[in-house]
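Repro:
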Amino acid sequence: MIDVQNQTDHRNINVDKVGVKDIRYPITVMDKDLGLQHTVASINMYVNLPRSFKGTHMSRFIEILNEFHGNLDIREFRTILESMQERLQAESAHIEINFPYFVKKHSPITATAGMMEYGCRVSGSLDRKDGYDLVLEVNVPITTVCPCSKEISSHGAHNQRGMVRLAVRFKRFVWIEDLVRMVEYAASCEVYSVLKRPDEKFVTEKAYENPKFVEDVVRDIAYDLKKDPNICWFLVDVENFESIHNHSAYACIERTA
């Protein structure tokens, strides 16, 4: 049969990324407490396309994914990318995996158990010139209390939920749980999936006694990351979904160690 994708294209333009997006697929993630955690990811896979080829072979991405079924975790990213380069005759290969990660978390006073979900992302790329790159990202919900509101108010202070995105490049393996704990420690208070009344009293008062701007949160996380010799690059940003303003508050720090 005619292979249309391998026919010559005369427009003389390279394509930086071509591939497949939003593949729903089961994956295995390293779990610090349980050893392994099984979850379902949304996966994007791309390669570059030289100017001389009309198209890439989309089915080969799925074939490669299926070959790694049951063994698709962060430790296999480089091998997967090498396979993509070889099978698709590409100079560069990219894979992005977005998945929910669940941690059993107990409320602070009654110790009521609940499952907390954290959105995670692993992005890998392999280029014959630039080599291998891997970025791990976690998204962690937090609570903050406004220091200014507390200072100027006779009663109470406005508080809100926020979302912290933390992305890192690292030298040795990093646990998702450790990144989550670092973020939660920097908040006015962490978020729980289940709270009884004694727990609610505790988190409300804890947050009130620990007010934080978005600037405080990103600086506290960046301060801890800069002390960690295993982290070679990081990006941390915070968005507060303000409770008394018609906008969000935002702060970001990106650094190379």
